[in-house]
Batch of 3 targets.
Target 1
Amino acid sequence: MHHIRFIIAFLALSLLNCKPESLENNQPSLPIKKSFFNIQYQKSTDTSLDRAERLKGARLAYKEADKGDVDSLKIKALLELTKLLNMEHKTDSALIYSRELLHVARQNNDSVIIGRAYFKLGYYNYEKFILDSSFIYHNESIKIFELLKDSLQIGRNIEILAVIHSDIGNYSVSDELAIEALKFYKNFDKPVYNATLYNCLAINAKLRQEYQEALYWYQKAIETTTSEKNKLVYLNNVANIYKKTGDYEVAIKRYESILENEKIISDPKNYSRTLDNLAYSRWLLTKDPVYIKECLKALKIRIEIDDIKGQIMSNINLSEMYFDNDIAKSREHAHNVYQLATQINHAEDRLEGLALLMRSSNTPNSYNNYAKEYIFLTDSVKRAHEKLENKFAKIYFDSEENRDENAALKTANLEKELKLSQSQQMNTIYLSLGIISIISFVLIFMLFRSRYQKEKLEEVYLTETRISKIVHDEVANDLYKTMVDLESDNSNKEILLDNLEQVYEKTRDISREFNALDLETDFSEVVKDLLYAYKNEDVNIITKGVSQVDLDNIDIPEKTLIYRVLQELMTNMKKHSQASLVILTFQMVNNKLQITYSDDGVGCEINKSNGLLNAENRINSLKGKLTLHSNINEGFKATIII
C-alpha cells in the first residue's frame, strides 16, 4: 500500500484553525517566570508522580508560558499537556490543545511540530472513534514527515491507519499497512512499536478466525515488546484465543499465570481484565454461579478507574452468566452494555447489547423493539463502514472536479452518438454485421491458437520431466558412486569428497526443481507443500485464500505454470531477499486467478534473471500477466494474473 503515503485529503479541515481563547487575546503579553515554568514542567514529566499531579504541573506550565511570547516554551508545555490529558481520558481537551499546538507550530513554521500536531489530532480523533478525521490527519502528518524523510514518524502514522482499517473490517488492507509500517521501523530499535503491529496482525487473524496465525503474531508481540504492561496485555490476548476455541482449561492456566505476576497488582486495568476473563472461563467450563462474584469484583474495579470498554466486557459476561438463573439481572447487565456503548458511540458494542436484550427480553413487544433497532443499527454500521472505505479511496483516486468533468464528457458523447445513430441507421446495421463476422473469425482463431499453445506447454512439461529423470538416474547416481569409491580409499581426499558432495547436492536440487509433478491430486495441498518447504525459523510464510480458490478445476498446463512460477519466486526469495516474512494471497478477480506475492526483504532493482524471465515467458504463453515491483530496502512484490 505504498500509495497511502501520497494520499491527498480533499475535505476542508476548517477545525484546524480552531484555538482556545488564549490565542485570540489581544492584550499585551506578560513576562514569563522561567523558574516557575521549569518547576511545573519538570513535575509534568516526572513519572514517579501520579498522573493527576503531573497533569496539574502541565496545566500550570502552559498557563505560565501563555503569558509571554516564547513559543518554544508553549510548545514544550502543550506536547506534555496533550499527552497527559489523553492518558486521563480527557480526549476533548486533548484535541483542543492539539489544535493550539498546530497553530503555534504554524506561526513558527516548525515542520516537525506541525507533523507531531497532525499525529496527535489523528490519534485523539481515533480515540473518539471519529475515524474519517483521524484518517485525514494521519495522512497530513505522513506528508510532512515524508518531506523531512523521517521514517520512524511515517511508520507511526501508517500504524494507526492499519488499526483504522482493522476496525472497519478491511483486514487485508490493514495487514498490508502493518507490514509496510514494519519496514519503516526496520532501521530503528523500537520493539514496542513493532510489537503493536504484531498485535494488530494477530487481531486481524483472530477476527478472520485464523486462530493459529493469531497465536503466531501474539507470540511475536510477546517476544518483542520491552513494555511489561503491554506484555501482560498480549499474554491475556493469547489466553483469549484458547477461550474462544473452547480450550477453557488451557485458557484458565494462562490467566492464572498472568495473575501470579506481581506487577499486575499495580495495574488495575490489566488486573481487572484478567480477573474477569479468568472468572468467565471458569464459568464456561463448570457453569458454576460461584464465579459471578469474581466478575462483579472485576466490574467494580473497572468502574472505579472509569474503564468504559472494560465495563462493557464485564457486563456482557455477567449477562451471559445470569441468563439461566436470574433473567432480570441478565437483562440489567445487557441494558448496561447498551447504555455504555451508546455513551462512547461504539456501534459494535451497542449491537452486542441489543442482542443480549433481545435474548433476555420478557415481552414480545420489547423483543420486537430491540430487534428493529438491531436491524437498523446493523444496516447503519454496514453503510458507515462502506462510506468510510469509499471516502478513503476517493481521497486518493477521485475528486469532485474530475467527477463533474467526466459526467459532462459522458453526456456530450451520448448526445453525439444519438445523433449519429439517427442519421446513419442502415450504415450501423451493415457495420454491426461486419463486426460480428470479424469477432467470430477472431474467436475461432484464438480458440485454435490457445489449443496450440496448451499443446506446446504440455510438450515443455513432458520434456522437463524427462530431463529430471535423466539428471537424477544417470548424472547424480554416477557422482554418488564415485564418492563411495573414494571413501573406500584410505588416502586423504576430504577436499575432493567435499567438492563432489557439493556437485551431488546441486544435481539433486536441479532434479528437485524439475521433478515430475503429481497434478491429478489436491492441487491446493501441492501448492501448500511447495511453500511449506521454504518455511523455517528465519522465514515465516503466510498464505491467504488458497483454500477458497478452486485450483483443482484449472487445466494441467495452468497448474504447471502456477507451480513453476511460485517455485521460482520462492527460490529467488531464499537466495537473495533476506526476508523474514512472505505473504501469498490467492483470489479470483474478474474471473481470473490473481496471486499476489509480497515479502519484507531487502528489495532490489528489478533485473529479470533467467529464472524470472522464464517465469514471465511461461505466463505470457497463456496470455497471463506478471508484474514485479521492488525498491532497495522496500521488499519485493509480484502479481500473477492467469
Note: DSSP finds 25 helices and five strands in the chain.
Target 2
Amino acid sequence: MKKRLFSLVLAAVMVLSLVACGKKADNTPVVNVEDTSKTPETNNTETPSTGDETTAPVADADVEYVRGDDEEAYEAALGGFGALNAAGNSAEKPDDRFVLFAQAEANLLGSFVMIPTTTQGGAYSISRVAPRTVPYVQWGNDDDRVKGLVISDEFITPAEREELLAQWAAAVKGEGTYDPIAYLTGKGHTIQKDYTLTFQTAPVTLDWLNTSSQADTEITVNTVEGLVEYNNLGQMTPALAESWEVSDDETVYTFHIRKDAKWYTSEGAEYAPVTAHDFEAGFHHMLDTKAGLEWLIDGVVKGGTDYYANGGSWDEVGYKAVDDYTLQVTLEKPVSYFMTMLTYSCFLPMCESFYKAHGGVFGVDEYAAASADTNTYTFGNAADVSSQVYCGPFLIQKLQKESEIYLVANKNYHRKDTVVLNSIKWVYDNGENPDALYNDTVSGTYAGIALGLPALLEKAKADGNFDKYSFVTDTTSTSYFGGLNLNRGTFALESGACATPKDEKAKVDTNTALNNLNFRKAMLYGFDKSTWNAVTRGEDLKNANLRNMYTSPNFVQLSADTTDAAGHTFPAGTFYGEMVQYYCDQAGLGINVADGVNGWYNVDLARQSLEAAKAELGDSVNWPIQIDVVYYSGSDSSTAQGNAYKKVMEDALGAENVVINLVEATTSEDFYACGYRAANGEAGNFDMFYGSGWGPDYGDPSTYLNTFLGEGAGYMTKVIGLF
C-alpha cells in the first residue's frame, strides 16, 4: 500500500513539500502504515450484532468486557463487500474491474463502518514554490520526489501562478515546454536551491522495503530510484531501467538496467554499482519483512504470495536477475496496471552486498531471527544514516528525531541534470505554535504555508499577504476517513495515558451498539463534516476538501461502454465516482459521493436510524452510548476538531443517546500511538478515529479497496478495530 497511511491531525498548518505544487499537496505525514497480523482470539460472550437480534439485559456488576472475534465481526459488517471486491480483483479487463469495484465500494460505504472525510488540498495557501515541478501523478511514491522543485525567493502571485499553470497545461498537450525557472527569473524572481519544510513524525527506519509509512518513505524516496518514474507532466519515463519489453501474452516484463548508476554512502563515497541483482534482492527482502508492502503483489508477481505466506520456494518467484543488468518479472496473469505499480516502494532496489555486510539475510524465518538481534543486524537503522547506501539524487546526512532531517544533493548522481535543489531540510514542528510557523514562512525560512487555521487566515489578511499571494491548493487522490471500532481491544496506552473513562458495562454497551448497523448509520449520518472541517479550514472553504467516497471519484474512467450483470450500461468516459453513485442510489443509501459537498450528513436519517437501533438493541445496552475520541491537547487544530466533533454528534443524536468522551493525549507521540501508529486493530485505543487516510499505490481502484480485505490482509481494517 502506498502509501501510505496518512495522518490528518495537525495538518492544517504543516509546511509540506507540495503545498504549492498542485496535484498532490500533502497536508500530513503519510503513514503508509499499518502493519500487522494478529493471532485470532476465541470469541466469548460478545457476538457482533447484525442489527436483527436483541439480547437479554445484564446486570452491571456481572459484566466484564471481552474482545470478540475479528473474523466474525468482519463477516457481519463487511462480508458482502469482501465478495464483491474479490469479483473485481478477478476480472482482467480494466472496464469490467472498474464496474465491479464500484459495486464493492458502494457496499463498503453501505456498511457504515467508515466515513470518508476529507482529502488533501482545497486550502488557502501562500507559497514560493512553482506549481507542477514535482512528478504529477495520483499514485505511487513519485509525488514525494522533490529533486525538480522550483522555489522562488518571493511568494508567487495568483496571476503568475495562473500563467505557469497555463504553460504547464500546454506542455502536457505537446504544445510547448514548461520552464518555470525561465518564467520566474524573467519576472525578477531568484531561484532558491535549498528547501526547508517541517515534519511531525520522524522516520522509524531507513529501510524503504521494510515500511509502508509515508513518514518514512517521503524522506527515503529522495535517496533511491526505481525502474521508472513519472515526470512533472504526468508521463512515465525511464529511471534505473533504460528500456524494457513485454511478452506477447503480457505476463513477462524484461527490464534493462542502466550501467552508470552507483550506490553511495551518506558521505558520498562510491560503494558499488547498481545491478539487476539489487532489484531481486530488494524484492526478496520486501517479502521477507512482511511490513505491509507484500500483499500488494498478491496475484500479481508469480509465486510471490506462496513464498511469503505459505513457505514456498524463492526459486519459484517470478522476480529474477537474468544477468547483472537484466531483470525479468513474471506475472501470474496479465495485469493491466502493472507498470503503474513500479513507482511504489515495494519494487525499489537495495544494495545486496551492503545489506549482507550489515547482518542481512534472506528467507522469511531467517530474516525474522536475524533482525531480532540489533547488535548484528544494523541495516537501515534510522538512528544511523550510515546504515544505508543511496543511489538517488540526495544523501541523508542527518536524522534526529524531534529535531532535524538533512539531505544534500548527491554530486555523483547519474542524472544530476534533473536536480534543481542543493539540499532538503525537515525541521521538527509539533503544531503547537502556528503563529511562529507563519512568521518563519513570511521571513523566508519555509517555502509556503497552508492558511487552514482561522487565526492564520486572519493574520494573512491583516498583513496583506492573503490579498497579494493566496490561492486554493488542488485537491488530491488521498482520502482521509473516520473509522468506528468494531472490536476494541485497548482502553489505555501501556503507560496509562489516554485511558477511557468508561466502566466495564459501558465498554460492552459501546461494542454492542457499534456492531449494530442502524447505530452505525446514526453515527455517520449525524456527522456534520462541514462544521467539523470549518474549525481548521475556515468557513469559506469548509466544503472545499470534503470527500465522500474512499477512492478518489475521478481516479479512473471507462474506456468503452460497459454493462453490469444486472444489464445496466455505463457509457464510455463514465468516471468511477459516477458508477459508485449509481450503486449507492440503487441501495438507497442517501449518500452523495461527489467531492466538495457534505454528502453524508442527514439529521433526519440519523435520528430515524437511531430509533431503529434502540428498538433492535432493546434492554441489552444502557443509554447513552459513550464514544471515545482521542485528541492531542498540544495542537489547537486537533483540540478544535475534537470539540467540534463532540458538539455536532451530540446535537444531532442527543446527549441522552450518545456522549462523546474527549480523551486527552498530552503528547503527539501518545496521540499517534492511539490510532495512527497502532500496530493492529486490537491496539487501537479509540471508538471513533478520524486521523488517518490512504494515498493510492497504483492506477486501479483495488489500491484503495484492498486495504479493507479481511483475515488481516487489509491494511486499513485496523482503523475499524480489526486484525
Note: The CA atoms of residues 237 and 465 lie 38 Å apart.
Target 3
Amino acid sequence: MTNQAATPLETAPVIRRLPPGAVNRIAAGEVIERPAAAVKELVENALDAGAIRVEVEIEHGGKTRLVVTDDGCGMARDDLLLAVERHATSKLRPRTDGDVDLMNIATMGFRGEALPSIAAVARLSITSRARGADDAWTLQVNGGDHGEPAPAAFAGSGSRVEVRDLFYATPARLKFLKSDQAETTAIGEAVRKLAMARADVAFKLTSSGRRILNLAAEPMTEDGRLARLAAIMGRDFGENAIAIDATRDGARVSGFAGLPTYNRGLPDKQFLFVNGRPVRDKLIVGAVRAAYADFLARDRHPAVALFLDLPPHAVDVNVHPAKTEVRFRDAGVIRGLLVSALRHGLAEAGHRASTTVRDFALGKMTPQGPGVSSAYQAAARSNPFLRDFQAPPLADPPRRFDGADAPSAPQSEPEKEAPDPAFPLGAARAQLHETYVVAQTADGLIIVDQHAAHERLVYERMKARLSEGRVEGQGLLIPEIVELASEEIARLKPRFDEFAELGLVMEQFGEDAVMVRETPALLGEVDVKALVQALADELAAIGDSLALKERLEEVCSSMACHGSIRSGRRLTGDEMNALLRQMEATPHSGQCNHGRPTYVELKLADIERLFGRR
C-alpha cells in the first residue's frame, strides 16, 4: 500500500453556529482553567463592588466547593439575571453616543465572562442584597441553566457566590486538575496577590475548616502597605525593604524593594501590580535584573513588590482572557521608570545591610567551653537563639587570662575613638587575622570584611569617575610585561582604546604578551598581572559583539576587586576608621560587587542573648 496525500474536501464545508452551551463551555475553558482562576475572578468582582472584607472558603482544593463572600454594594433581583449573561457587565460606563471606551478601564476587569463561564461548567449559587435594599435574592445556575431569582436571607449588603462541583459539566477538564493540595496552594497564591494589592481590605481564606489566611485591613499608607506585604512575603522582607517612589510622564511607581543582601535563589518574590491588578510581565524581570546588576551574582535574585499607577489609556488590560498580562503603550518609558526608581531607592539605602545577615551570623555562633552547664541548658530551652546550639568540648582547657599572655606591645592599635551615634558603623577597636575590622557602635559591635568593603568603595568611585568622563591613569615607573595566550591577546587588543578610558593603558608586546604602561590611579598599588588576566577572562564571558561600556559593571568590578585592600594586609587604627567613614558615605557599601555582605552588625541585646543574660 502506498501513502497518499490528503485531498481537499470535494464539497464546501458547512459552517454552523455552535449551540450556546458549547460556546459557554469553550469560553469557560479560556477564563476558568482551574479553581484558583474562579476564586480570582470572584474576589476581583468583590473588590470592584467596593468590598472592605472578603472571605473565601474552599473544600478539596476548590474542586467540590468554593465560596466567596463580600460586603460590597450587592445586587438587586434583576441584576442577578444579567450577571450570568455573557458580555453583561457593570464595569464599563457608556459614552454619550451609547458606545463604550474599551481603552479606559478603571476596574479589576470587564470581560463579562467570569460568572457565566463558571456557571457553564459548575453548579453556581449567587445570594446578594443591594446596599440600602430591604430584600435579598438568590439565583441557582446548573451547567448554564437557571430559573428565576428567589427571596433569600443575607445580613447586610454584599454578595455570597458559591460554586459546587467545578467542571462537572466538562469532565475532560476535571481530569487535568492537580491534587487537592496543589489546587489549594494555587488558590492561596491568587488570594495573597490580590491582598497585596489591596491593603485596605480584610481577607480570610479557609480550606476545609482550616484557616490559611487571616489579614486585617491596613491603611493605604506606606506603613500600612509594608505591613500587609510583610504579612504575606515574610517578616524578614518588612525589616529589609526599601521604599520606592518615582514618577515619570504621568506614570508613578511605588512599593518596596529588598536590600541586595536580602536575596534568594529563585525570582519567586518579584511582584508587579498595574493599577491595582497583579500581573505577570517580562518587563519587571528585566527591570529588576538591570537595577540590581551591580549588587548581585547572576544566580541570586532580589525580592520586590512594585505598584505601577498610570492612566488607563496608557495600558491595555484586555490582552489575556484571565487578565494576568497587560500591554503598555510605551514599554520603554515604563521600563526606564522601574529601573531608575529601583536604583535611586538602593542608593538611598546607603551602607545598610539586611538583618538576615545578623540572624545568620547568630545562628552560626556556638557557646565555647569544656561543657555546657545545666543552667545554660535551661536558659537555652527558652531562648530561640540558643535552643539548637551543640557546644563541643574543647581539646584543651581554657587558660586563665591574667595579663601574662598579653603581647608586650600591640602591633597596631586603633585610636580610642568614642562611638558616635552619628557614625552608624562605630569606632574601630581591632583587626582580626589581618582581614576583619572590629568596630564598637553605640549599641553593639560591627565586623567588617576589609577586602569586600574596599572593593565596593573602589567600584563606586570608578563608576563616578566614568560618569564624569574618563578615569585617570597613573604611569608605572617600569612598564609591566604580562604573558598571555594568543587567543587572550586577540580578545584584548581590539579593546585597548576602551581600556584606556578606564585608566588602563597597554599595548601588545611581541606575540604572546602585553605591556602595561598605566593603571587606574584610584586603584593605587595593584597586581597588574592578575588584573590583566582577569580582564581577559571577563572578555571571554562578554563576547566580541558587545562594547565594554555595555558590560561596564563586570569590567569595573574586576578592576575594583584587584585594586582593593587585600585580606592579610595590616591596617592602622586611622586606616580602619577611615574605611568605616567612607563606607557610611558611599551608596551600596553594605554589600560587595557580588551581593555578599561587607559587614555584620550585632546589637548588644543579641550578644547578651548569646550569653543567656536575656
Note: The mean pLDDT is 81.
